[in-house]
Amidohydrolase
Amino acid sequence: MTLVTKIIRTALILQFLLYGLFTFGQNATTPSSIHQSVQSHTEKIFDSLVKIRRDFHMNPEVSGKEKRTSEEIAAYLLALGLEVKTGVGGYGVVGILNTGRAGKRIAWRADIDAMPSDIPDVVDFSSKNEGVRHICGHDVHTTIGMGIANVLANQKEKLEGTIYFIFQPAEELNKGAKAMIADGLFNLIKPDEIYGLHVSPYPVGTIATKSANVFAHLTVVELEYKASNNQDSLVDFTKELMTNAQTYGPNAEFWDNNNLFSPELGVTNPNTIYKDYTALMDKLYFDVKKSNDTLKIRVLLNASDKEKMNSFLALIKNKIETSKYSKELLSVRFNLQKGLPVMETPMNDEELTNETMKSISSIYGKQSVIPLYGVPPLQFSDDFAYFQKTVPGVYYFLGGSNPEKGIVAMPHTPNFEVDEECIKTGVNYFSSMIIERLNH
């Protein structure tokens, strides 16, 4: 077990205790008949969904190569009676469930690609494709999307409006969403709202989210100076200046990953240390380039929100302009360099976030929803953000961990695993949520 896994497992045990998940559901209201039907149907198809998930897990396909995965999805949706469009932005699939009655148009998105990985799988149903593994949980996302389509197709006569199911390729390359949009996705469908999820280390039986950004903002800060004889001094000055301009010093609790999910300091606490901050990923991305004309220094900046990101840039510029190096300074700017892991972060609509969290907790209990108050300084994002630029929506974290079973669902880690009960959670919660949005 890796150090990260041990840290998260300890934090998860505390989360279980904090949210009272051993008595999960006690605070739920009695669900209406349609939500009882949702739960009954989900239970009925659960074993088949587990088989589907394991099939995807054993047959993973990397970004841009999701041919078999997309064919399986399309066949499943067609069997449910949905209208199906394939080949959208590559191997993207769109399923359309039209109730035949006027109403709201809701979209659900699931990403379908796996990752190159030589790390041995930790489950009995391991990957058959050498060098490829579902180590990020997209097999679970895909299965949940198919399960929601199954449940809502079963409830079609009780619904109004249209539900779109977007199965997106190439998320790991940060290309799939843009490719689907460029290929006319929003000419094909016209959603009023869009929703999606990602497996996360939160406890199984929960979802977590917040309004605005759900990941830290990542951007490259580039400083350009005139070439001079004191370039080494300039580099040292700039590194020290930017390091000291961070919100937290090198020995702060902020840098201890053990605190990310702790009830006292982590992102689930209203007073979390993971809000209102700027932090540099200097050990990984401090890049110095010298030429005959210029000196360029680039660093990856991690910020809790765009305001803090912009303030950091303004502060650095002011400090240099009032220093002895002011005459050498040419520019201070954000520069999204090709090849660096700089991506958009999903930005959740505040009203939709609050309303959907409220509806899920009212049906499935207040312990089902974990409100977040901060964002960890990790290099994660999701190109779901590009859909949200056109359509308001919400991105959720789905709990997949179970410390009692030794399962820690931290994506991109060697021991990544999920408690497959999270499939049932995802299908139940979000089928009910979509029904509530259609009726809203």
Notes: The chain has a mean pLDDT of 92. Residues 103 and 366 are 29 Å apart (CA to CA). The longest strand covers residues 193-203.
